[in-house]
Specification:
alpha/beta, 4-stranded mixed beta sheet, Immunoglobulin-like, single chain
Length: 153
């Protein structure tokens, strides 16, 4: 009876070690990519800039100091840095250790035609006490159909 228990215990121990070895072999190492995102012209940090991993649904945005940090499994990745009003920047890397990547992005330059802004005098409604006044030119008044209203009291 003890021999059967001993064989059974050895069998369970072998299966346990086999399962433990399989899980250890399949577990990938995780590494962290971090850095700052800055404007390349003036060096200002960009708050809320996006770092996305191409081909995956993973990403992060920079904090109040322009700092970002993302943890990924070991492997090959392409990181894309984007921010509104700036050109995006892509960096390819093989992740085998903790890595620091600082992004310096260029602003987009938009060229457009001349823009003219005009307005009425700002304080006209304050100086005039004629609230609800509607100006109608005499030509329009003459072109309106005539209405005859009989008032009865």
């Amino acid at each position: 009876m003890t021999r059967i228990k001993s064989v059974t215990m050895k069998f369970y121990l072998i299966i346990f070690l086999f399962v433990l070895g399989c899980t250890q072999a399949s577990a990938q190492k995780k590494y962290t990519i971090s850095g700052y995102i800055k404007d390349s012209l003036n060096g200002e940090t960009l708050i809320g800039a996006a770092i996305t991993v191409q081909g995956q649904a993973k990403g992060i945005s920079s904090n109040l100091y322009g700092f970002y940090s993302i943890t990924l499994d070991e492997g090959d990745y392409t990181l894309i840095c984007s921010f509104i009003g700036y050109r995006y920047k892509a960096v390819s890397l093989r992740l085998t250790a903790d890595t620091r990547i600082n992004f310096e992005v260029l602003p987009k330059i938009y060229l457009s035609e001349e823009v003219v802004v005009s307005a009425k005098k700002r304080d006209a409604n304050v100086k005039n006490a004629q609230m609800g006044k509607f100006t109608l030119p005499m030509d329009q008044i003459k072109s309106l159909p005539a209405f005859w209203v009989k008032w009865t009291f």
